[in-house]
Amino acid sequence: MIKQRTMDKKKADVQQVTTQEEQQQMLFQRISDTLMDAYKYLSDLIANLNELKPPYVGSYVLVNVPEINELSWKEGARTDCISRSSVTGVKVFRQLSVSYALANPAPLSFTRDLIAAEKTIQALKENGIEFTEGRVRNALGVQTAITFSVPREIRVRLDVSCDDATGRLRLETRNLERFGKMQYEFELDALNHALLDQLALMMLGERNNVGKLIRRIF
Asked: Which of 93, 115, 178, 184 could bond 35 through an S-S bridge, CB–CB 3.0 to 4.6 Å?
């Protein structure tokens, strides 16, 4: 009798593990299908934007730096979908990324006094923006200010990944709509064409409802 109970427990444990593995594989497949659908949408969008090179409607702002504006889409943007092998050997997708640049061939040139220049240099370095500087001297040869030349090119990146345990998605962005990083979390079903349409507007600097569709956590 005890032996039979032991055998029954082992059988139930095996069935439970099998069920858990099946559920995990089903989740991985849902994640993969959702990311692939988004990848196809974004790949088509990027291909069209690379050809059209539309103007960017918005501008980027930093402390003690003039607005970085009059930008346009720069050819060379790309989308990537990273895969992994499942237990069954089937390739499933686990991460989606988009990278592109907004640019203007004319550099941004401006001058700041020595006190303001310190904050300008700090802001540029903190945001990874390249720049060159020159010294301004008065008639006595004393330095009074610094001139800056900043290439007007903003590199933007979006990464969508998934928490395997919860099935929730995370969108991490850099320099999207503004300098710096942002993070959003949302349910798998929220990555649909309605959200992708709004992300496309956001990428072009236009008014959008991304913040109403998904929750920003950082």
From this structure: 93
Amino acid identity of 94? R
Give the chain's residues under pLDDT 70. Answer: 1-18, 85-89
Question: pLDDT, tens digit, for every residue of 44-63?
Answer: 999 999 999 999 999 999 98
Give the per-residue pLDDT at 208: 97
Which of 141, 146, 142 minimizes the C-alpha distance to 118?
146
First CA to last CA across the chain, in angstroms?
A: 58
Residue 120: Cβ within 10 Å count: 20
- The whole-number pLDDT of residue 144 equals 97
Q: How far apart are CA 170 and CA 178, in angstroms?
A: 19
Separation CA 49–CA 5 (nearest Å): 65
Using left for φ > 0, alpha for ψ between -120 and 50, and beta otherwise, residue 70 falls in: left
What would the two tokens of residue 155 be?
């590199």
Residue 26's CB is within 10 A of a number of other CB atoms, namely 10
Are 166 and 153 a contacting pair, CB within 8 Å? Answer: no
Angle, CA of 66, 69 and 70, to the nearest 5°: 140
Query: Is 143 within 8 Å of 114 (Cβ atoms)?
Result: yes
